[in-house]
């Protein structure tokens, strides 16, 4: 049992290899809460929002974009054949609504919508945002200043805001997603094989088209992974930042069934896109999470001595989970203390996703059927 204790404790150290640091956007000019302000600083920026049946999510995003001390030049909502009033909601809140053309063969709905939005925006600086995100007070100024301080593409992982208990089940999915991008380890922006976060991309139009834009990744569900490769091949730099105090989102607010479908969609095509070394470190770290409770359960069942070494792996792993999740979202301390629940949920959904990917079966999402290879 002692060997198991120290093996689990040692494997916990693997977590620091992919969660060494999550850098944030620098403080922007103007961080005060505000309401729509005609005197706000207008940025030379076009925001592009691909939207399919997002009438419930768009008000929060659009209001946040217009209400800060810095606002975009234009917001373009590309309505991807919605059936819930998405276009009307967007127009009522000051966005330019672009009715999406029919989905061509070989494209996903999101890549096609983003492509059309980029064509509409012209040669401006572009900010692609998912409809379920929103800007925190002063966040657009922080995004802009962070973007201007470097070169190439700025990608931001939204901070996960928890509003209902079941949403905490996304804990290990978010940890795996953030780790898989390979941007938060000790090497940071210098790490090889970095990906991007698809929820938020800011870049100049010239860089976008030089890399081929969304047309170059038109059939991919996880277009952010392939886009990163395209940018790097074209000599366009990439940077990843955490969204705390800048950009937030809720994951799958429609309920547990939506959460499961959403993660199955993502994992069915994405498990093989993580760099092998990073993937091995993630697996080793999660193995520590599986092993950590064993000595404690063994002691509590009366088959061993309840001691500090028996509790050490569980305490160490739970502390790591608390620290890591605190960088990514507002999960609360009980999510970390009861981490085996979201970890088991993650493993079950991952197994279902892997089975779907192996069969090559379609994945249903927002009224469309997408193959595991990416089309839909």
What are the key terms here?
Spore Coat Polysaccharide Biosynthesis Protein SpsA, Chain A, 15 helices, 2 domains, 3-stranded mixed sheet, 7-stranded mixed sheet, alpha/beta, 376 residues, disordered C terminus
Plain-language structure description:
The chain folds into 2 domains: 2-18 and 274-370, no CATH class; 41-254, Spore Coat Polysaccharide Biosynthesis Protein SpsA, Chain A (Alpha-Beta Complex). The chain is α/β, with parallel strands linked by helices and 376 residues long. It has 15 helices and 12 strands. Helix content is 44%, strand content 16%. The strands form 3 sheets. The chain has a 7-stranded mixed sheet. Strand 2 (70-79), helix 4 and strand 3 (96-99) form a beta-alpha-beta unit. It has helices spanning 2-12, 15-18, 58-66, 86-92, 109-121, 139-148, 171-180, 205-210, 223-233, 256-270, 276-291, 293-300, 308-328, 333-337, 340-359, and strands spanning 41-51, 70-79, 96-99, 125-129, 133-135, 153-157, 159-160, 200-204, 238-242, 247-249, 363-365, 368-370. The protein is elongated, with a radius of gyration of 21 Å. 51% of the residues are buried.
How many E-type strands?
12
CATH topology group of the largest domain: Spore Coat Polysaccharide Biosynthesis Protein SpsA, Chain A
Strand order of the largest sheet: 3-2-1-4-8-6-9
Distance between the termini: 50 Å
User: Would you identify the CATH H-level superfamily of the largest domain?
Assistant: Spore Coat Polysaccharide Biosynthesis Protein SpsA, Chain A
Helix content: 40-55%
CATH class of the largest domain: Alpha Beta
What is the CATH architecture assignment of the largest domain? Answer: Alpha-Beta Complex
Q: Spell out the helices and strands N to C.
A: HHEHEHEHEEHEEHEHHEEHHHHHHEE
Write down the overall geometry: elongated
Q: Classify the beta-strand content into a percent band.
A: 15-25%
Quickly count the helices: 15
Instruction: Return Rg in Å.
Output: 21 Å
Number of domains: 2
Secondary structural class: alpha/beta
Biggest sheet architecture: 7 strands, mixed
Overall mean pLDDT score? 88
Low-confidence stretches: 30-36, 372-376
């Amino acid at each position: 049992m002692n060997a198991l204790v120290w093996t689990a404790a040692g494997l916990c150290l693997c977590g620091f290899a992919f969660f060494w640091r999550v850098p944030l956007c620098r403080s922007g000019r103007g961080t005060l809460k505000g309401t729509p302000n005609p005197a706000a600083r207008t940025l030379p920026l076009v925001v592009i929002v691909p939207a399919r049946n997002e009438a419930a999510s768009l008000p929060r995003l659009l209001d946040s974009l217009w209400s800060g001390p810095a606002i975009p030049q234009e917001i373009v909502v590309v309505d991807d054949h919605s059936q819930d009033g998405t276009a009307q909601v967007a127009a009522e809140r000051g966005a330019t609504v672009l009715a999406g053309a029919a989905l061509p063969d070989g494209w996903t709905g999101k890549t096609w919508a983003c492509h059309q939005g980029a064509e509409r925006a012209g040669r401006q600086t572009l900010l692609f945002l998912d409809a379920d995100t929103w800007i925190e007070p002063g966040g657009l100024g922080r995004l802009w200043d962070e973007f201007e301080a470097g070169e190439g593409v700025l990608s931001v992982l939204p901070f996960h805001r928890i509003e209902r208990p079941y949403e905490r089940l996304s804990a290990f999915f978010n940890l795996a997603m953030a780790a898989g991008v390979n941007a938060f380890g000790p090497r940071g922006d210098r790490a090889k094989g970095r990906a991007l976060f698809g929820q938020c991309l800011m870049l100049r139009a010239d860089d976008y088209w030089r890399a081929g834009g969304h047309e170059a990744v038109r059939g991919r569900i996880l277009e952010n992974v392939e886009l990163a490769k395209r940018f790097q091949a074209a000599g366009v730099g990439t940077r990843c930042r955490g969204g705390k105090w800048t950009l937030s989102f809720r994951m799958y607010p429609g309920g547990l069934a939506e959460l499961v479908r959403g993660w199955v969609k993502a994992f069915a095509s994405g498990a093989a896109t993580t760099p092998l070394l990073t993937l091995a470190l993630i697996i080793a770290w999660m193995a520590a999470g599986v092993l950590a409770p064993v000595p404690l359960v063994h002691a509590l069942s009366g088959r061993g001595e309840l001691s500090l070494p028996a509790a050490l792996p569980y305490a160490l792993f739970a502390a790591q989970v608390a620290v890591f999740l605190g960088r990514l979202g507002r999960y609360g301390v009980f999510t970390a203390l009861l981490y085996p629940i979201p970890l088991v949920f993650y493993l079950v959904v991952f197994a279902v996703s892997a089975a779907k990917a192996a069969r090559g079966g379609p994945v249903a999402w927002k009224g469309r059927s997408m193959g595991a290879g990416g089309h839909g």
